[in-house]
What we know:
By secondary structure, the protein is α/β, with parallel strands linked by helices. Helices cover 34% and strands 15% of the residues. The strands form four sheets. The chain has a five-stranded mixed sheet. Strands 1-4-5-6 form a four-stranded mixed sheet.
Amino acid sequence: MSFALKQQPSELSFEEVAAKYPQFPRLVMLKTDIQRRGVYYTDRALSVADPAIHQLAGTHIFGTRDGILTHRPEAFILRDGTSVLTSPTPLEENPYIVDLCDGRLVLLDKGQEIEEIEYWTKPDYYNLTTSTGVPMSHVASARPQRIYIMPSRYCHFWSDNQGCLFCDIVNNLKQQKSELDLPPKLKPRDVAETIKEALKEPGRFTAICLTSGSDFHGGVPFDTEVDYYIEILQAVGENFKTAKFPSQLISTAFTEKQLARIYEQTGILSYTPDIEVLNEKLFAWICPGKARWVGYREWKQRLIRAVDIFDRGYVNTCIVAGVELAKPHGFTDEDEALKAVLEEAEDLASHGVSTVYTVWVPRPGSYLRGQKNASLDYYVRLAAGLHELRKKYNLPIDHDDYRRCGNHPDSDLGRLL
Length: 417
């Protein structure tokens, strides 16, 4: 599945893109476009979102396009089981519409029914609290088959005004703390108790993921972050009889010594330090904290060196796809952007590191608010290009695929293999 890198002079509609790439799975393409444009839930659709049954949003580490935390469905599934994590979006921004028609939940575009959908059902542990009184739904959220833990919701790059420009993590934390009373930092005991309860639901989960904001404090930069991850992962590990358990750490790019400590002292099995943008110049602009404390070239080298610890296919990085086109310093041509991104991704793939992407959501709490992300055509070609690189270099992505994460259109294509 390879596509020419020639972009149309004007943005194509969903049906035009689907006709242009008939070999690309239509529902994965639809998922991508939903994430690109956002969704709007009508009052009718919200009326059947039952908090006793469905998984409602509120604990996500990032905010929504409309800046509202009101409990709405966190995600839904399409008829082939494709998971779509949603970002509620104002009507004036032309989102897809989720509505209730004849008793069915449907996705609408310009008044036309596109697909029938279903809300995610919540796991049993969402009804419980820890021994300290924290709702377990505030300790860990659920993805398709993955328990998602956010130990710390604060990124210390923000304390130096060097947070990533697409990110709203701290602004979202302030809102969550005010409106939902979410704990900004988790206690290991609460995590251990939550995981114990989550694992009582047979067949629901197959992996555990941790992610937090960066913390550059410590004798060596990021030692404090490493120490905290070790504490949390050891608490998780209390619930397993084996030394290692299916797991992913999404974090800062650590030194070999720091990473060896985490690997040797915990049950972690895969590692994902997100580089965010695959271009050295744009990395310095968009990710000033990461550029200052690690640097683009060193971040790549730490990814590559991590393969010696975790092995091929168990180290990957995520990019915020489309942010490389952000104004005023980003690429102005999608073809040039795509070529540059895939060249950098291939350099990593040749060393055993896979790249996945999330669709850039210009959130109102971020510096890049109000901008427009890339075309659907661009996202389709990027997904196909990254998928082809994994095939070419024989890189599995099982720890971050459609079954575990469900947020990467490119790794959804792993269903074709």
